[in-house]
Backbone:
């Protein structure tokens, strides 16, 4: 601890004049201000990521482990051989990894919101969406790392995507967009739930049915009729199909359109819900 | 606007379920003053402040800050008020400099401007050496200083300080007091809460005493203290049986009854003037009464409370559980 007392020099020789400050106030944040605030919050999230690299663990391990494991275990049973299964599997793993990152978004937001600094964020004249959207922008990096890692692991064990480089880039881009959009659901959960653990628990219950009751790992046609019906409406299925089309054929099919529309709908519904629930929590 | 009030709150109410944490509090803070809200834990001080800072919705009553309606225009209020919380609201994962830069950026400063203001504030609050160290290495006093610095980035005309020195050691506390006094010379108005009478006494121009969600008194520190006597003589008689005789002596000399403690032989005597303590002691000696211990104390919050409400400051056991909810 330091011993010197605080230097009594005012920051600014001008005295604070309340009436001037009142006249300068604005009734809400402009779009440009909101954008700057969101980027500042993204900067904060990036700083935190750099200081706590252990939070990249799930992002690094899951693609490596699951890609190799699923390929060798299920490859023969589902597609006849590992190399035949990889074009089916890689897009599925991508979707699953993106959802895991989404889940972490919600859990971390909840942990973060319990900290004292959120009191300050709430007391500042900033757009209520900035503290939510900022970390999600920083998370784009995590989706990117996870997606690239999954594809690289696939390439290493023999995956040769027919869509070429462009198809892969498109597929990864779509995964990142889908992950970012679905993350709003978990962000909303994060603002609603009482604790980080409960976010984790609820997220698991959402994530498992979404990934496993989709066409991510098995062809939908092999499922019983009622399950096939659910799989066909599951947005994750559309994202997986779209990514498959991009990766394996380099084709921008109707599935890509459906996936993008689905993502837009999720954002349109859950972003306002999340902001509302966050604002009300004060 | 001719109105020179900084805060004008009438009949503020906050309920948590059945519990009325704030039950019709009026606060009128004038521009340029330090206004103290004094009360024990759970009296509703923090809740009141959080409502005025738009951190909690107002359940009843009306509040204006510099003429701006708190409920209707929260975004404007947030541009007028700097809030320093009871628990330092700074980011533990960033350095002090990064904290200040971030808060500056969030409030619309350019990156360069935010950087230069952060530098100025770090110097002013004597945090330069620690500026780039992680906050986990900061002492409580340093955190509080950083927290206060964070509230001053845009030089808000009104500053809320929620128990600014709770948990600080006496020296750090004195430094904090100096800093708070300086803010007023810059033209800011300060609304602070505290559990300590001496802190309110040291800093505040006027004090509102809050108890169980209600305001029980509002006055200058001097006026409040005279209500309970300038200081108190606490003494124990050698023989417990002499208590009645001792009380007679006090009554004769000061014209007032001593407060008898349930412990036999102990009594608290409010003194209008600490000099009168000698008169009492001489009087007791002349009456042939022995004394086993004696001390002169300044009135504590407890005594102010006792005088104002008829119950002690920590006599809150039945409301304690709800207090946690009030956070």
Residues:
């Amino acid at each position: 601890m330091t011993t010197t007392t605080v230097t009594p020099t005012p920051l600014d020789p001008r005295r604070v004049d309340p009436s001037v400050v009142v006249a300068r106030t604005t009734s809400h944040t402009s779009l440009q201000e909101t954008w700057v605030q969101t980027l500042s919050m993204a900067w904060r999230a990036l700083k935190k990521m750099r200081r706590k690299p252990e939070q990249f663990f799930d992002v690094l391990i899951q693609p490596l482990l699951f890609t190799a494991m699923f390929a060798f275990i299920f490859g023969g049973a589902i597609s006849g051989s590992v190399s035949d299964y990889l074009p089916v599997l890689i897009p599925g793993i991508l979707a699953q990894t993106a959802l895991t990152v989404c889940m972490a978004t919600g859990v971390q937001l909840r942990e973060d919101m319990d900290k004292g600094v959120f009191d300050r964020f709430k007391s500042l004249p900033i757009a209520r969406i900035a503290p939510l959207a900022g970390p999600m922008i920083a998370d784009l990096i995590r989706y990117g790392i996870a997606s690239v890692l999954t594809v690289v692991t696939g390439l290493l064990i023999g995956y040769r995507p027919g869509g070429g480089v462009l198809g892969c880039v498109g597929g990864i881009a779509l995964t990142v967009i889908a992950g970012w959009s679905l993350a709003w659901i978990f962000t909303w959960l994060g603002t609603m739930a009482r604790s980080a653990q409960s976010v984790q628990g609820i997220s698991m219950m959402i994530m498992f049915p979404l990934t496993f009751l989709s066409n991510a790992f098995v062809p939908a046609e092999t499922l019983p009729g009622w399950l096939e019906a659910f799989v066909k409406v599951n947005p994750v299925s559309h994202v997986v199909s779209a990514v498959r089309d991009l990766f394996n054929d380099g084709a921008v099919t109707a599935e890509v359109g459906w996936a993008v529309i689905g993502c837009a709908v999720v954002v349109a519904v859950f972003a306002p819900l999340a902001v509302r629930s966050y604002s009300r929590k004060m | 606007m001719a109105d020179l009030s900084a805060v004008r709150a009438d009949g503020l109410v906050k309920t948590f379920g059945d519990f009325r944490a704030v039950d019709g509090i009026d606060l009128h803070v004038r521009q340029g003053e330090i206004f103290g809200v004094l009360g024990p834990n759970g009296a509703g001080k923090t809740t009141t402040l959080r409502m005025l800072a738009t951190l909690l919705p107002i359940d009843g009553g009306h509040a204006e800050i510099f003429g701006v309606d708190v409920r209707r225009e929260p975004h404007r209020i947030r541009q007028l008020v700097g809030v320093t919380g009871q628990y330092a609201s700074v980011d533990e994962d960033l350095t002090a400099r990064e904290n200040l830069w971030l808060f500056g950026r969030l409030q619309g400063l350019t990156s360069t401007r935010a950087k230069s203001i952060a530098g100025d504030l770090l110097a002013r609050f004597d945090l330069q050496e620690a500026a780039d160290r992680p906050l986990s290495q900061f002492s409580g006093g340093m955190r509080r200083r950083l927290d206060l610095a964070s509230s001053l980035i845009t030089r808000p005309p009104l500053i809320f300080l929620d128990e600014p020195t709770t948990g600080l050691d006496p020296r750090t506390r004195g430094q904090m007091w100096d800093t708070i006094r300086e803010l007023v010379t810059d033209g800011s108005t300060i609304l602070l809460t505290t559990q300590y009478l001496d802190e309110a006494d040291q800093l505040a121009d006027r004090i509102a005493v809050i108890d169980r969600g209600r305001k029980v008194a509002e006055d200058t520190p001097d006026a409040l203290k005279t209500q309970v006597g300038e200081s108190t003589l606490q003494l124990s008689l050698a023989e417990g049986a002499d208590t009645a005789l001792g009380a007679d002596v006090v009554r004769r000399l000061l014209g007032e009854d001593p407060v008898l403690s349930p412990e036999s032989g102990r009594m608290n005597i409010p003194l209008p003037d600490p000099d009168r303590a000698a008169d009492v002691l001489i009087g007791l000696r002349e009456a042939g009464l022995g004394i086993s211990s004696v001390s002169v104390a300044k009135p504590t919050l407890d005594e102010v409370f006792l005088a104002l409400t008829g119950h002690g400051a920590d006599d809150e056991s039945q409301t304690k559980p709800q207090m946690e909810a009030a956070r």
User: Anything to note?
Assistant: The CA atoms of residues 130 and 138 of chain B lie 8 Å apart. Residues 5-225 of chain B form a domain with the Rossmann fold fold (CATH 3.40.50.300). Chain B touches chain A through 64 residues (CB under 8 Å). Chain B has twelve helices and 14 strands.
